Amino acid sequence: MAGKEPVNEQAVATIYGSLRTELNQIYSKITELEMEVSEHSLVINAIQPLDPSRRCYRMIGGVLVERTVKEVLPAVLRNKEGLEEVIARLNEALEKKKKEIADLETKYKIRVRKPDGEVTDEGGRKEGSSQGVLVGPAS
User: Fold this and answer.
1) Domain extent listing, the chain
2) Which one, of 25, 4, 12, lies nearest residue 97 by Cα?
3) 23 contact partners, CB below 8 Å, separation of at least 6
4) DSSP 8-state assignment for residue 51
5) End-to-end CA distance of the chain
6) What is residue 132's three-state secondary structure?
7) 104 and 12 in contact (C-beta within 8 Å)?
8) 7-26 per-position pLDDT tens digit
9) Global pTM?
10) Does domain 9-108 have CATH number 1.10.287.370?
11) pLDDT tens digits, residue range 96-137?
């Protein structure tokens, strides 16, 4: 927060909503970057056992460039390490944002209501709901 107290309930709700939005944005960015790390790992596992002098193609800024495995592998490893560092920093920011939201919830006694009034247990599952798994006949 900006260091000053909100003037009314509406201001508190606005601040709380913006914090929740920021939290969701951080979550989605972390998920996106984890998918990229996974793709980098697949590429690394695929080209690592290959002959270092073998031709390899890599997309750089929208341009497909011909290189060798020896040239591409270190670059992909560096990119993966960089992505992992960014994910670690985003996780730190996520924890700070969670703490900020928890402090706001505690200070102003905020409770989140579900839109349809459903009750959730500790696991976050709806009581009495089915999981929606469809199994066909055994053949």
Assistant:
1) 9-108
2) 25
3) 94, 97, 98, 101
4) -
5) 60
6) coil
7) yes
8) 788 888 899 999 999 999 99
9) 0.76
10) yes
11) 999 999 999 999 888 888 777 654 444 444 444 444 444 445
